[in-house]
Write a structure and sequence with these properties.
Largest sheet: 7 strands, antiparallel
Number of strands: 20
Distance between the termini: 38 Å
Structural class: alpha+beta
Helix content: 10-25%
Strand content: 25-35%
Length: 341
């Protein structure tokens, strides 16, 4: 085990010193030579490695293990390790309750050149959608910008706590301020702004073509830089207690969610939303705790300089959906909100 029991995500291959090892399963362990468990053991390039051979390092930060590669940090803790880390924050009764709330999720990150991991989607570029499907627009404001696509068949749907369809593609659109210099803000606080964000589902087998955004009154929408995405499994912690029974520990819940969430950018599918201001699930439920439990994170897209995506002052986009709507493929009923620092 690395550095006191660090465990890595599926398919990870790392080198520690002169030895190499592979992870065993979705949250399986990576073995290392005796004596390599120093606080910052060097781990040379492998599945997490940079194509240029930049080293990563494994370290323990206040009891929390992370694997750092170049400018990105991936949390590689198992469910048990998350619970162990939470003992520093919560008393026994609250810890047991918090443990029951943990969800399996996946983090989206750039697919690196030469990497054999599956491509699960894309940020930016132009969407591939049916020719006869109307481009999403916000009536009275203009067309939405294409943000991301997710290939449901490629995502690790059997390993996350979100019942996505087994096939098909999800397309995410958002009124990103290009047409009004950011004047309008799409948020759950104002229901009239909800048409400013959309999710389209394209079933498998439906013919699609690459589409560019329409030009409105001589003004076109600039597509964001295209970035092919891979997915890593991780454990997602809630930033709040929807039951309302442990509100006195809300600060600890929030701290844990951010501590276990890894570093920027925070793109993810499933699990819990990672808020920048208010609790996202409560925000879309208008502060109704009972209704907040019904809303599941469909996708979270962070500001990402590599994809030329910056939402306001480094904000974050959230699409949430209720289980029944998800089961019925009613992605038109997804609710959106955005937050900024």
């Amino acid at each position: 085990m690395l550095a006191g029991g660090v465990e890595a995500s599926v398919g990870v291959e790392v080198a520690v010193g002169d030895e190499r090892a592979k992870s065993q399963d979705s949250f399986g362990s990576v073995e290392a030579p005796a004596g390599s468990g120093a606080v910052h053991s060097e781990v040379m390039s492998g599945a997490f490695g940079d194509p240029g051979g930049k080293p990563a390092s494994v370290g323990l930060f206040a009891g929390r293990a992370r694997l750092t590669v170049a400018a990105a940090t991936f949390c590689v803790m198992t469910m048990d390790e998350c619970v162990e880390a939470a003992r520093d924050y919560l008393p026994a009764d609250a810890l047991e309750h918090w443990t029951g709330l943990l969800r399996r999720s996946c983090r989206l990150r750039p697919l690196r050149p030469g990497e054999t991991a599956a491509a699960v989607g894309r940020l930016g570029g132009n969407p591939r959608m049916p020719q006869d499907t109307a481009w999403p627009e916000w009536p009275g404001h203009g067309p939405l910008t294409f943000i991301a696509s997710l290939d449901c068949a490629a995502l690790p749907t059997d390993d996350i706590d979100l019942a996505l369809p087994a096939t098909g593609t999800l397309l995410f659109f958002y009124f990103d301020g290009q047409l009004d210099d950011g004047y309008e803000v799409v948020t759950a606080f104002d229901e009239e702004t909800q048409p400013g964000a959309r999710v389209l589902y394209v079933p498998e087998g439906v013919p699609v073509v690459e589409r560019a955004a329409p030009v409105t009154e001589g003004t076109g929408i600039r597509p964001h830089a295209e970035q092919v995405l891979a997915a890593d499994l991780f454990v997602s912690a809630p930033a709040y207690d929807a039951s309302g029974d442990y509100l006195e520990h809300e600060e600890a819940f929030s701290a844990l969610a951010h501590d276990l969430g890894g570093d920027y950018p925070h793109h993810r599918v499933g699990g819990y939303a990672l808020p920048m201001q208010h609790t996202v699930e409560l925000e879309v439920a208008h502060d109704d705790h009972a209704q907040a439990r019904e809303w599941l994170l469909l996708a979270q897209i962070d500001s990402d300089e590599d994809a030329a995506m910056v939402w306001g002052d480094g904000g974050r986009l959230f699409w949430l959906i209720r289980p029944q709507d998800l089961a019925e493929l009613r992605f038109d009923r997804a609710r959106f909100t955005s937050q900024q620092c």
